[in-house]
Amino acid sequence: MEHKDKRHNSTTESEKNIHTDFTNNMTYGEYLQLDQILSSQDRLSDHHDEMLFIVIHQVSELWMKLILHELNAAIESIEKDDLQTSFKQLARVSRIQSQIIQGWDVLSTLTPSEYMEFRDFLGQASGFQSFQYRKIEFALGYKTDHVLKIYQKDRELYADLEKAFKAPGLYDVAIKQLAKAGFTIHPDLLNRDYSTPYEEDQSVRDAWLTVYQNVDQYWDLYQLAEKLVDIEDSLQQWRFRHMKTVERIIGFKMGTGGSSGVNYLKKVLDQRFFPELWDLRTEL
Ligand code: HEM
Ligand SMILES: N[C@@H](CC(=O)c1ccccc1NC=O)C(=O)O
């Protein structure tokens, strides 16, 4: 099929600029590659509810794909000082997050006994291995190298993930905007090694506090900060619903990925992305 060759492949999108031939008579199903998508729900058990389990994960991964697309675009916009464009992209990320959070309501119709009928078929597979989820964490600035090790055996995935690991995150480019607006930011932060976790900093806290206390003067930075808070808030809501849904379905059993299960997921809730933006609120 000729049109397929003309697609923008997601990995080469920025490198190639091939125009679609709009005169072709491609169908709805062809355009959306539904043959591929709709033939990718193979259940390992013959249990009815495994279909729900597969679909909810696939839908989540598709939304994550769009989140990454928007987050990376927003990081680029902020680097280019185009904050207005980044606001639109970040607002879209928040709306997508709302969709994924709603998904937990659907999954919680799965009861413990239904899940246990096919859980063993999953072996050691776990959401722990979600590649796109890690890329989102990296784009938001949460860098932990134990995550990279999971992919050591897969060269291509590893290289892709490593690139995201070493790149500046959303908070790094936001902090650069504070410096560009004239705030004194600790120089180590502006030239930091992006492959290390971000550590809370007094100069960043002081700068954001001034922004929040002088909204009229720093309207753009204030809007940017609130968009970041929206995204962290939603990510924490997602994590909380995941943890509670898991408790509802498997109680305190160990996870297939080898973790303690619910207690591990509770611990992850303590991890923060934009700490100063939360801390400063006590002082307002
Ligand atoms: C019955 C449904 C589910 C159960 C019982 C479950 C259980 C778990 C458990 C126990 C973990 C900890 C790692 C481990 O030891 O396996 C985990 C991690 C994870 N799960 Fe799920 N999960 C479910 C649904 C989902 C869904 C729908 C998603 C969406 C993609 C998802 C994404 C993840 C991610 C990204 C992690 C890694 C979290 C982190 O390390 O911070 N899970 N899950
Ligand atoms: N960690 C889950 C298994 C699980 O949920 C899972 C297995 C395969 C593919 C995706 C999964 N989802 C999220 O962790 C469990 O311990 O039951």
UniProtKB/TrEMBL annotation:
PANTHER family: TRYPTOPHAN 2,3-DIOXYGENASE. Substrate binds at F53, I54, V55, I56, H57, Y115, R119, T256. Residues 1-19 have a biased composition (Basic and acidic residues). Belongs to the tryptophan 2,3-dioxygenase family. Binds 1 heme group per subunit. This is Tryptophan 2,3-dioxygenase. It catalyses: L-tryptophan + O2 = N-formyl-L-kynurenine. Keywords: Dioxygenase, Heme, Iron, Metal-binding, Oxidoreductase, Tryptophan catabolism. Pfam families: Trp_dioxygenase (PF03301).
